[in-house]
């Protein structure tokens, strides 16, 4: 996967992961992929909800050692 | 994504730390959703916009009393429950730090950064004897009509 930008949002609580993801996404072009790493368990539902409503697509998600990683393609 | 922006409008009536925190978390989240966000501060919610340092202004007796009794700024607001004469807020701030959550003053800063429109209700500003220079910079003053104009186009509308 071609990741255009990696966002480290580990250790941050709500609403920061989504706020940071939005800021990072603003810097990307349509079609580019943002990787978001977070330890906020709420993000499991938050980021997909945000992505869907904002017109982006969650391509993949994985959970490893308490870290959630999302790959989100800009719409 | 060419459709017009969605809108979130929040009336912050409460001057409690926890309730204001909820309002600002939702506001910041909504801004991340690319909504146009307005927080309309009225009555005790205005305390969130007060500057921490006293500002020398001319006031009448009742206005001075209000100024004394109301918390000066977001950081000094009490909890709606378990305030325990100020111990509660100290504890909650500890817990906020421990969990890497954002304290209220930073949430307000971030809301401003994200372009959230902060509005002070002019009528209650006058009622409580607050002067514009006592409130933080970059806010607007308006009334019910301006609020309704925003809210009537709004998708999310909350009263906190």
UniProtKB/TrEMBL annotation, chain A:
<dbReference type="InterPro" id="IPR001455">
    <property type="entry name" value="TusA-like"/>
</dbReference>
<dbReference type="GO" id="GO:0016740">
    <property type="term" value="F:transferase activity"/>
</dbReference>
<keyword id="KW-0808">Transferase</keyword>
<feature type="domain" description="UPF0033">
    <location>
        <begin position="7"/>
        <end position="31"/>
    </location>
</feature>
<comment type="similarity">
    <text>Belongs to the sulfur carrier protein TusA family.</text>
</comment>
<protein>
    <submittedName>
        <fullName>Sulfurtransferase TusA family protein</fullName>
    </submittedName>
</protein>
<dbReference type="Pfam" id="PF01206">
    <property type="entry name" value="TusA"/>
</dbReference>
<dbReference type="InterPro" id="IPR036868">
    <property type="entry name" value="TusA-like_sf"/>
</dbReference>
Automatic annotation (TrEMBL), chain B:
<dbReference type="InterPro" id="IPR032836">
    <property type="entry name" value="DsrE2-like"/>
</dbReference>
<protein>
    <submittedName>
        <fullName>DsrE/DsrF/DrsH-like family protein</fullName>
    </submittedName>
</protein>
<dbReference type="Pfam" id="PF13686">
    <property type="entry name" value="DrsE_2"/>
</dbReference>
<dbReference type="InterPro" id="IPR027396">
    <property type="entry name" value="DsrEFH-like"/>
</dbReference>
């Amino acid at each position: 996967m071609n990741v255009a930008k990696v966002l480290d949002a580990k250790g941050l609580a709500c609403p920061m992961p989504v706020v940071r993801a939005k800021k990072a996404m603003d810097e990307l072009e349509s079609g580019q992929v943002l990787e978001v790493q977070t330890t906020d368990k709420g993000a499991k539902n938050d980021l997909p909800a945000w992505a869907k409503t904002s017109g982006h697509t969650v391509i993949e998600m994985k959970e490893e050692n308490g870290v959630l990683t999302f790959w989100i393609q800009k719409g | 994504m060419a459709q017009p922006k969605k809108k979130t409008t929040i009336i912050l009536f409460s001057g409690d730390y926890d309730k204001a925190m909820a309002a600002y978390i939702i506001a910041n989240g909504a801004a991340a959703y690319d909504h146009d966000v307005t927080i309309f501060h009225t009555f005790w919610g205005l305390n969130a916009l007060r500057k921490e340092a006293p500002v020398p202004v001319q006031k009448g007796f009742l206005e001075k009393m209000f100024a004394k009794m109301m918390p000066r700024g977001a950081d000094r607001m009490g909890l709606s429950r378990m305030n325990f004469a100020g111990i509660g807020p100290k504890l909650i701030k500890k817990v906020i730090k421990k969990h890497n959550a954002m304290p209220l003053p930073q949430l307000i800063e971030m809301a401003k950064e994200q372009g959230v429109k902060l509005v002070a209700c002019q009528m209650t500003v006058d009622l409580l004897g607050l002067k514009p220079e006592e409130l933080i910079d970059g806010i607007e003053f308006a009334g019910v009509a301006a609020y309704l104009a925003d809210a009537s186009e709004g998708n999310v509308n909350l009263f906190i």
